[in-house]
Amino acid sequence: MFNRETVGGLAKAITASYPGFRKDVFLQRVFDESWDKRALKERVRHITLKLGELLPEVYQESLDILKGALPRLEEQGFEKMVFPDFVEVYGLEDWDSSIPALEYFTQHVSAEFAIRPFIEKYPEKTMSQMLDWVGHPHPGVRRLASEGCRPRLPWGIRLKGHQADPSPILPILEHLKDDDREEIRRSVANNLNDISKDHPQIVLKVLRNWQDSGNENRSRMIKHALRTLLKNGDPEALRLLGFSSPKIKILKLSLEPREINLGEDVLFSFEILSTGNVEQRLMIDYIVCFMRANGKQTPKVFKLSQKSIQPGERTQITKKHSFQPISTRKYYPGMQTFQPQINGQVFGEVYLIVR
Q: pLDDT tens-digit profile of 194-221?
């Protein structure tokens, strides 16, 4: 994504906006001996710092140059993250210049990471500005109002103040919950999901008030906002979506084989028998308690399916689970425990030995 072609395009756009820009020096400094070792966000920041070395020392002059260059890069996408990153690095002491710049830049590329240091340093006036943005005509600005203040935004710095007290976020989400853009409603759900990890009761109260069975977009957003609580089997979250305590039996719970080597697969299966006298809605998941390096097990919930089951009906569940190493999870040898989870309740367990 960040290579000689795209960074060269950036340099060309800036030169068009600022003829005195030393394009060749910029490219030489960007592609130094450590370039290939840098990860994605490290490359963004490295490019930003090299721009800072060669743009005017007066911050507002540099902003004007970048504003002139940005529209010349319509063919680029994430590569334009350098523009809000420049504001994050060089503009934190100049709120009055930086916030309008982020409002402009986010209409071309998300400023969700760059706004966060401003929330931390100037919490009241930045959040007041973000509340004003909920009525902005451009969807990128409205999305920034929600996505930028997520307490636990992936790749972003944690907003510890909002983790402790999310109340400044809630008016923003209230205004955006029925936005006509799916990506904004999804951002609202992501923000609430973040909040639910620290304040589940606040989120449950908000979503109870938001329930509207005739609003499909609202229902989908609520379900997405509850995903962590649903994985954790929170009974109130399950009730919000119509999942009650299940009247079932789990039969024929099995793992095949019961011993495997790291990198191999196992087949997990069980049968669900409805013992109720009415139709039931089931959220069917399973938990794997993985062996960790310290010799203790840590549970992780995996989603399977949702379905309705009639009185006396049986349904078979079969799932292949791989112990092939992946970048987001490291497996350790030893005992691993598999458990069916139905509507948040665990029904039995079966063991696997991984060598």
A: 999 999 999 999 999 999 878 999 999 9
What confidence tens digit (pLDDT) does each residue in 155-204 have? 999 999 999 999 999 999 999 999 999 999 999 999 999 999 999 999 99
Q: What do you get for the CA distance between the two ends of the chain, in Å?
A: 39
Task: Tokens for 324, please give them.
Answer: 């092939």
Domains of the chain: 4-240 (1.25.40.290), 248-354 (2.60.40.10)
Number of H helices, E strands in the chain: 16, 9
Return the residue matching tokens 């503009």.
91
Asked whether the beta carbons of 187 and 223 are under 8 A apart, the reply is no
344 to each of 229, 325, 350, how far by Cα in Å?
Answer: 9, 28, 18
- In angstroms, the CA 296 to CA 150 distance is 32
Nearest one of 259, 277, 348 to 313, comparing CA atoms: 277
Token representation of residue 81: 């993250």
Residues whose CB falls within 8 Å of the CB of residue 326, separated by 6 or more in sequence, listed in order = none
The answer to whether the beta carbons of residues 304 and 337 sit under 8 Å apart is no
Judged on CB neighbours under 10 Å (0-12, 13-18, 19+), 3 is: exposed
* Spatial separation of the C-alpha atoms in residues 188 and 177, rounded to whole Å: 6
Query: Which phi and psi angles does 65 have, rounded to 5°?
Result: -65, -45
* pTM tops 0.85: no
Q: Hey, which residues does 288 pair with through a beta bridge? A: 300, 338
Q: Classify the phi-psi angles of 110: left when phi > 0, otherwise alpha if psi is within -120 to 50, otherwise beta.
A: beta
